[in-house]
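Handoff note, outgoing to incoming analyst
You'll be picking up this chain. Sequence as last confirmed:
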Amino acid sequence: MASTRASPIGLDVSAVTQLADSLFRSADHPIYLINRQRRVVWINRFRLGDREIRPDKVIGKRCHELFAQRQSPCRSGC
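Most recent structure output, in case you need it:
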């Protein structure tokens, strides 16, 4: 029997995750989530200029490396 995880506010986490994933994947602009170490943990598929950004190629990269082509974090943060 599959269990359903509930969020602290009583929502079905799986259903909320599926809805958010569907909305984010349909966006024409980059939407991404980073962790405290500034590493990309989720990103939608989108085009950046003439190149397509594929999630499987950027998960785990630091946001400043990916979006600003920097080796160190941006001064303003991500």
